[in-house]
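Section 5: illustrative case.
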């Protein structure tokens, strides 16, 4: 360090308010103490020995044997940061340039699992997601490594674990989330850019010389035709099903429950209610909470307004050995039933969601006074209202009067028969019979435009 820069640093950091995390502040001033010729260094706990503090701080990464560790270890918890865009075969252990590699995540976790100083691993996550390539394999590898090592793997959403980040977080046996943390987005997106019009405007022609009918499908020099678009959509849908299956398997929800989220993003308590997170925490307390769990085997779970404390089998046996007072079995069972019922009610109501009424259904699910039966009735009413509004809007747009169609097309008896026979899987396409009737009448009136139809 240039000695002439010391006065400048002193002016910037001494006698000035700083926004520094206390541990980092200790490290910062300990490193500068001798260069700034500081006689003593004090914090709220008393005098700090700069040499001892720097050694302790360094050992949290390297250990007393000076073996480099690509993670920080505190109270037996290895913290693995996962930040920015997630990419395949990045080639770096640590996050860099706004990206984190799946290979780096797996490698750091493997090292932590083999480290005798580590009792558990915490994934510190702040990522919106990333590439599909490598994601599912990384999530399954993390789960396998944790199970084979016997060291718990937890994830902390601080403050984002979305899409591919949710896939990685699902590998953890427990997921913590902050009040503002966002989790979910279990879906797939694909973008295509076409420069066809721009090239025409500029008078440019791009000729693709290729062998194989599908070789240049999706190229940016021409618009997607319907066949290619349909194939891309099918591939995207297939990837989503794989994604849903992975998350459902790891976090203990059904595939239908995860699908019902429609790739929604949930914040804080909402993520807990939907099943994407287990406990609301202050991000600064996460390591201490995990360390306490490693010592005692206890972990609190929050589902909606219901909180419960669970205890692992090993910890329960240890409690008996030390003659500590156990949690009353009846109370614990009641809490579990309450939590399970609350979660089941929420998931069942959320499964009623349909495009256009996601927020409405979520409001019902979050209202503890609404039963599942009430929700079904109110969702049916809302769908009927939307269908009626849509017909009225389309009628106004077309400026025509809808007349009664012959009874042979939409008679009540023929529609009832079709519904009862479940013709063409009707009952899986509509929430109820009334919705089917409303759609059929609108379709017969020529007010329903099918996907891809022009006009």
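Designed sequence:
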């Amino acid at each position: 360090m240039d000695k002439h820069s010391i006065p400048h640093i002193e002016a910037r950091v001494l006698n000035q308010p700083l926004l520094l995390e206390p541990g980092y502040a200790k490290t910062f001033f300990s490193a500068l103490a001798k260069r700034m010729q500081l006689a003593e260094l004090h914090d709220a706990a008393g005098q700090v020995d700069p040499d001892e503090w720097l050694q302790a701080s360094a050992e949290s990464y390297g250990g007393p044997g000076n073996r480099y560790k690509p993670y920080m270890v505190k109270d037996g918890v290895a913290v693995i940061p996962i930040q920015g865009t997630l990419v395949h075969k990045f080639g770096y252990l640590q996050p860099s340039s706004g990206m984190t590699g799946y290979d780096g995540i797996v490698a750091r976790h493997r090292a932590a699992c083999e480290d005798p100083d580590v009792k558990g691993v915490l994934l510190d996550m702040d990522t919106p997601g990333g590439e599909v390539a490598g994601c599912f394999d990384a999530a399954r590898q993390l789960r396998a490594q944790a199970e084979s090592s016997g060291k718990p793997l937890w994830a902390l959403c601080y403050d984002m674990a979305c899409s591919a980040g949710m896939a990685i977080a699902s590998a953890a046996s427990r997921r913590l989330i902050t009040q503002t943390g966002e989790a979910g987005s279990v879906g797939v997106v694909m973008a295509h850019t076409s420069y066809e019009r721009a090239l025409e405007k500029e008078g440019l022609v791009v000729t693709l010389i290729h062998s194989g009918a599908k070789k240049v499908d999706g190229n940016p020099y021409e618009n997607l035709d319907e066949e290619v678009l349909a194939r891309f959509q099918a591939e995207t849908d297939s990837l989503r099903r794989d994604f849903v299956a992975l998350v459902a398997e790891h976090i203990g929800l059904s595939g239908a429950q995860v699908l019902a989220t429609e790739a929604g993003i949930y914040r804080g308590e909402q993520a807990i209610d939907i099943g994407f997170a287990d406990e609301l925490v202050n991000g600064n307390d996460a390591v201490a909470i995990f360390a306490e769990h490693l010592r005692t085997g206890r972990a609190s779970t929050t589902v909606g307004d219901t909180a419960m404390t669970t205890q692992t089998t090993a910890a329960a046996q240890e409690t008996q050995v030390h003659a500590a007072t156990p949690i009353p079995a009846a109370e614990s069972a009641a809490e579990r039933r309450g939590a399970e019922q609350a979660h089941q009610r929420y998931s069942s109501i959320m499964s009623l969601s349909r495009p256009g009424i996601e927020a409405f259904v979520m409001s019902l699910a979050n209202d503890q006074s609404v039963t599942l039966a009430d929700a079904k009735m109110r969702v049916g009413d809302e769908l009927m209202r939307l269908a009626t509004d849509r017909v009225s809007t389309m009628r106004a747009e077309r400026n025509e009067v809808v007349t009664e169609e012959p009874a042979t097309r939409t008679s009540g008896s023929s529609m009832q028969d079709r519904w009862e026979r479940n013709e063409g899987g009707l009952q899986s396409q509509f929430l109820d019979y009334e919705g089917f009737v409303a759609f059929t009448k609108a379709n017969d009136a020529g007010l329903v435009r099918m996907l891809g139809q022009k006009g």
